[in-house]
Design goal:
Bound molecules: zinc ion
Number of domains: 2
Order of helices and strands: HEHEEHEHEHEHEHHHHHHHHH
Distance between the termini: 24 Å
Radius of gyration: 22 Å
Length: 328
């Protein structure tokens, strides 16, 4: 059976599954573009941890929204929920020290205490290090939700101790219309592709729709969809990918979408959920070339690359090694 753990999973499902397995993590990082309402989502998820009458809905464990705890969260009066926001544009070390103190105390109402740190990317190094100490040894029943547009804006040591939850902007259709108006006359599936790949970030979506990116997208897919690797092709792709971190990251997202599409094609054929629908021939070719097991290995290699990229690495060597490895 095809697993979906690396495809998009809604945050509430991830939390519900962890509670069911009695393996709830202590730190979560909510990422998503502007307008994806990350702090609101964190408050909603806090309700699952604080609710006195946790219920099952559509096979998910969720809050009741009726008990005294849920009502207090709704009116921002719950004594075990704390929301920290930047002061003068920065989350200060004193705020983190205060969190540390609060989380070490016994909860006042139920079993858990929750702290939400909004715009965690505004923490400077001292505050980040202070938070890291809390994450290293979280007190029993203490849970932290961090929000940031992007995981790369935080210390890798904080990211590695947190479960990443992705938030999507709600109004996809409006974004679709804006994009279509600004960059008209492209096939519908390309707007869809760029919005999904950018997770609703319009500026990024426009980059994905640029002639340059679409050109290299085709090159990259063609490279993956043939058994043989040509040295010349590898050279040009490496050169393109390693120009800067943004381009490299965009290519990683693209490669992930290719793997996701091949997995979808294996299971459902040419279904509308495939993101790179205009390049279906390459997806089909990939499906013939790689086994499902190999495709899952691809995903872990690409995930590893996303983390490794934040370190100071030689992009060119790294891109070349990754492209060679993917063809093995
Ligand atoms: Zn409740």
């Amino acid at each position: 059976m095809i697993q979906t753990k690396n495809l998009y999973t809604p945050p509430e499902k991830i939390i519900s599954n962890m509670i069911k397995k009695d393996r709830l993590a202590h730190s979560f990082l909510l990422v998503g573009p502007q307008g994806s309402k990350k702090t609101e989502k964190a408050i909603e998820l806090s309700k699952i941890l604080l609710c006195k009458n946790i219920t099952k809905k559509d096979n998910l464990l969720t809050y009741c929204d009726k008990c005294s705890s849920c009502r207090k969260v709704n009116s921002f009066l719950h004594p075990d929920m704390h929301i920290i926001e930047p002061e003068d544009g920065v989350i200060k070390i004193n705020q983190i020290r205060e969190i540390k103190r609060i989380l070490s105390l016994k909860p006042l109402e139920g079993k858990n205490r929750v702290c939400i740190i909004s715009h965690a990317e505004t923490m400077r190094i001292e505050a980040s290090n202070a938070l890291l100490k809390v994450l290293e040894e979280p007190p029993n029943g203490a849970y932290i939700f961090l929000t940031s547009p992007n995981a790369r804006l935080l210390l890798p040591t904080i990211v590695s101790r947190s479960i990443i939850l992705r938030c999507k902007p709600k109004d996809f259709l409006t974004l679709f219309e804006i994009l279509k108006e600004e960059i008209p006359q492209l096939p519908t599936e390309l707007y869809n592709f760029s919005l999904h790949l950018s997770e609703g970030n319009l500026d990024k979506a426009k980059v994905f729709l640029s002639q340059e990116f679409l050109f290299w997208r085709k090159k990259l897919f063609s490279y993956l969809s043939h058994k043989k690797a040509w040295v010349k092709e590898l050279f040009f792709l490496t050169e393109y990918m390693s120009q800067d971190q943004d381009i490299f990251n965009n290519c990683l997202e693209l490669l992930k979408s290719w793997v996701r599409d091949v997995l979808l094609f294996n299971k459902h054929g040419a279904c509308p959920k495939i993101l790179n629908l205009d390049l279906l021939a390459f997806i089909q070719a990939g499906s013939k070339l790689y086994e499902t097991k190999r495709l899952y290995k691809f995903i872990s290699q690409l995930d590893f690359a996303s983390v490794a990229i934040v370190r100071n690495i030689n992009l060119s060597l790294f891109a070349e090694a990754l492209l060679i490895e993917l063809k093995k």
